[in-house]
Amino acid sequence: MDAALYDLCPPKVTALYGIKFPKGPLQTVRYDDGTGDELVVPLGTTAFVSGKTMFEILPREYKSVAVRARAKYAPHPFQWVSRWKVAPTGLAMVTEGSEFASFDELPHWDKDKIKIYPFVRLAA
To answer: What is the count of structural domains for the chain?
Structure first.
């Protein structure tokens, strides 16, 4: 979750500004797409991917799921997930079954301000 989209619309662009970067050896990113492509990058690099390309390489049955799927954003999402713990790698959340706060524990929220967006937005 990159944004708290309760009562807000998603941004049209994303920008990152790095102030401090980890020091250390370069790392090699290996693309797991069968091409054998690799990219040597400094530590702390953020990868961006093409959603269009990802959709194009999906098998047909997954494309069908993707175009029908919707994401419903929780009210006050950062408070909602505040009990979550991060995996040692920093790349995932640990699931123990009690991570989510109940909606009754959150600050006041309005059902009409909850956003629902499609996973895929097809160009006209």
So the answer is: 1
